[in-house]
Each structure stands twice: as structure tokens, then as C-alpha cells.
Amino acid sequence: MSGTDGEQCADLQVTADDGSQGAAPQPAADDGSQGATPQLAADDALRSTSSQVEADDGFFFGVGAFETIAVAAGRPLLLDAHLARLCRACEYLGVDADAGELAREVRKRAAAPEVAGGRWALKLTVTPDNRLITLRPNPYGPARYDQGFSLVTSPVRRNEGSPLTAMKTLCYADCILAKREAMAAGFDEPVMLNNRGELAEGATTNLFLVLDGCVLTPPVGCGLLPGVARAWVLEQGAAREAVLYPEDLARCEEAFVTNSLMGVMPVRSIDGRRLPSREHARDLLARWQAEVDPSMGCRG
Prior knowledge:
Elements: E1 14-15, H1 57-61, E2 65-72, E3 75-76, H2 79-93, H3 99-110, E4 119-127, E5 130-137, H4 142-147, E6 149-158, H5 173-184, E7 189-194, E8 199-202, E9 206-211, E10 214-217, H6 228-235, E11 240-241, H7 246-251, E12 254-259, E13 263-270, E14 273-274, H8 279-291
Parallel strand pairs: 1-5, 6-7, 6-13, 10-11
Antiparallel strand pairs: 2-3, 2-4, 4-5, 7-8, 9-10, 9-12, 12-13, 13-14
């Protein structure tokens, strides 16, 4: 694949997430946990690119963007929305990205025999000189939804004044480190505030609280990445935006988090307080499974 300036870019290929040669049994997953990499055939289309990735501004300075796309039964879910967000970020960063060409490559990889029969997480990464696709199993199954997530307030703050906060760029280490810290303490996801002390988002998710029967989520101006699954919830008319505060975590009757791999994840506890309801989350999860990802296998 080549950029519009005529310079040759690295081919789109499946790699180990850690860039190592061959199979990588436990690379870091997008959610900060340690996941497994599918065993893919070592042919020209599915080979490691560790010796081929260019050390460009994406490598040195984080000038690049990525999308993590759920793949089910060979089909990339909500692909148009993912590519639209990716291309907006690339345009801002001055990185060439052809949505049509990227869509063709993503669909081609998603339909490969090695991945066509299962549920996967496909990461598409674009930098000035690289176009990469990586694959790993989708870690979310019925047992995770039955259990629900435990959330904890994080000391890490989101920068609501930075335009990059609302883009899925390679400047992502603060989220991953906050996620790993929360998981090391026995929680599933940290809740991050902004510099004004308002609620923003989870490290890898968007946050929804139910207060007095109303489903609310922080607006983008509070310093968050507007997720594809978040947009789906809002399009359903199932929630509205509102500025939220830490005290709302202590009084909400229900909460859930969203991202493209999990769809809608119920929350069982926040800062150790168990929540009494999952009504809205269960309803939205059932709708997500019916309309977006029928492969989830969750009970109604």
C-alpha cells in the first residue's frame, strides 16, 4: 500500500501485538490485560512484520491512530463507524488514510479461514509509513457479562483541553497503565476524572450511570474518547449526555460501560459498593446482541 505522496508504506499484515517474530503466546491486549494471540499460518499474507515496520513519527512520537474492531463469523462489526473515526484522527495528525482501501483489507483479513469461524479483536493501526492489522481472540464471553465489571476511581486524569483525548491515537500509555494498576488491585476497570474533577471515562470504556431512573453519560467536552459503542447507545435513544461528578458514583443505582469488543458490560460494583440493579444494561446488551453481534451467546 502506498500513501498519496507516492512513498511506499508497509503492507497490511497480521502481527503479534508485541511485534515479536512468530507466534506470541501472551501479548498485551488493548484492555491492558495479558491475552492470547491466535495461531495464524506463517504465509506471505499472515506473517510477522517486526523486521518491516518503519521507525517513523508513529514509532517515535505517537503520530498515528488505531481502531479495535470486533470480528464475528468473519464480519467486522460497525466497520464504517470505526473507519470514519480513524480517518478523522489521521486527517488531524496529517497521516494519509484511504477509508476504502482500509475497509477492503480489514474485510479480507476478517474473512481469512484462520479467523472466519470465531470471535476476534482486530486492531487496525495507521502511522505515516505503516499500515498494520493485528488479531487476538475477543476476551468477552457470557461468563463476563454474568459477573459484571468492578470499577475503581483512578488518580489518573484525562486532559479535557487536549484535542488528542477525543481521538484514538498511539498516545495511549496513560490509559493502559491505569488499567493495569486497577487490575493489579483486583478491579476490572478504572474510572478517570478530568482536570476539573468531573467524570470522564474508563481507561478502555465509556461510562454510563443510572441516576433517578435516567441513563447518563459524560459529554465529549469532559475529556473522553467518543466510542463507537457509546454512539450506538445514544443512537438508540437509551441515554443522554450530562456532566457527572465523583459523588454520582456513590449514589447511582446502576452503571454500565461500553466499548466495541464488549458492547454493553454491566457493572456490579464501584469502589467496593455493590450496585442494586442491572436492568438497563441487560436490556441494552440484549439489543446489542440482536442488532450488532449475534455471536455473543449471552442469555436473555
